[in-house]
Amino acid sequence: DLTKNLQSGPEERRAKRAESRGAAREMVDRESAYPALPASPPRDGPPNLLLISLDTVRADHLSVYGYPLPTTPFLEGFAARGAVFEQAMSQSNESAWSHATLFTGQYPSEIAQPTYETYAMPSDALTVGGVLSNYRYQTAAFVGGGHVDESFGFSSGFEYFSAEQGFSSLWHTAPKAASWIAQADPEQPWFVFVHGYDTHRPY
């Protein structure tokens, strides 16, 4: 059960993840179930970057991190071909503070006074979007609203910024991001941030 999983040692959890990833690799390799996506046209230069935020998702409830129920089979398939970071820690349980750190590499208290009612990133904050723009990246963000919209300063550094109303889902933001990517200049790299509150409320 979950309690036993959380109390298990790192080696035991690592073994569970390895077993889970092996099963996921077999699942993803079934071409009939998962047809290959069309290949992107080759392009020299820096890679495209896609950053996805699953707001309020807990690592200890993801099967890719050893949770006993198969909650994240697609992430397991992705992890089977990539890397899983076991020591990645959020700087806060609050969306605005943790995303501010994600975008700037600074602690929330270094960015602004960490007061829940008034917290916002300043307009002159150095963000990953702003840095990449200086390197000729096309930048866009598609967020689920809430505490990561433009009123909290999160549009800083993005050439295009789209925020939903309230606390919205990846069902709203991901299709818009895909459409933007399809129309982006293929000769220039892009950085896209996609965000959703799918596990935030009412859970």
Short note summarizing the structure:
With 203 residues, the chain is an alpha/beta fold. It is 33% helix and 11% strand.
Radius of gyration: 18 Å
**What integer is the average pLDDT?**
84
- Proportion of strand residues: 5-15%
Estimate percent helicity.
Answer: 25-40%
Describe the biggest sheet? 4 strands, parallel
Could you state the order of secondary-structure elements as H and E? Answer: HHEHHHHEEHE
Give a count of the beta strands, DSSP E runs of length 2 or more: 4
**Any low-confidence stretches, pLDDT <50, length ≥5?**
30-38
**What coarse outline follows from CA principal-axis ratios?**
globular
- Structural class of the secondary elements? alpha/beta
Strand numbers in spatial order across the main sheet:
1-4-2-3
Q: Count every helix, treating DSSP H or I runs of 4 or more residues as helices.
A: 7
Structure overview:
- By secondary structure, the protein is an alpha/beta fold.
- The protein is 33% helix and 11% strand.
- It has seven helices and four strands.
- The protein has helices spanning 2-7, 10-28, 73-80, 95-104, 108-111, 128-134, 170-183; strands at 49-54, 138-143, 160-163, 190-196.
- The protein has a four-stranded parallel sheet, sandwiched between helices.
- The longest helix has 19 residues, at 10-28.
- The radius of gyration is 18 Å and the shape is globular.
- 30% of the residues are buried.
- The model is unreliable at 30-38 (pLDDT under 50).
